[in-house]
Amino acid sequence: MCDEPVDADMPVNDPRGPSVDSRTADRKAKVAERLAHRACNTRKGAVKVVIAWPDRLHVVEPAPLIAVAERLERKGGRELVARCPSRKDAQEAADWLVDRFSRLAPGLPVTASVDPGSGQFLVALATGRR
Q1: Which of 24, 112, 118, 123 is the most exposed place for a label (fewest CB within 10 A)?
Q2: What tens digit of pLDDT does each residue of 59-98 get?
Q3: d(Cα 100, Cα 128) in Å, to the nearest integer?
Q4: Which of 121, 100, 123 is CA-nearest to residue 113?
């Protein structure tokens, strides 16, 4: 959740210790579990976790990444996730997204594309599953 590595050998009562995170409060969803820091998982509580986009990226209307991951895992295909003012900004966002999704949904290989559209650049994520 916080993008920091989790040491599975730390004591579970330590705030930086391991805790199982199912990435969603919806227990009916078929979502893979993963390790998170105990403090991060506790802070999340019963609310749906939100993965923040870094402030260094110049993104207009960024998509909620947890929802994107859930849809791509469930349906596959392609989804637009952001608009950027320049190709450079869009490529930086695309590179960050591929790296972020490799940790957010490790079993879901995604690729990112940058396409011009309406005077801006659109960033899309895609998976081979349909």
Answers
A1: 118
A2: 988 888 888 888 898 888 999 999 999 999 999 999 999 9
A3: 18
A4: 123
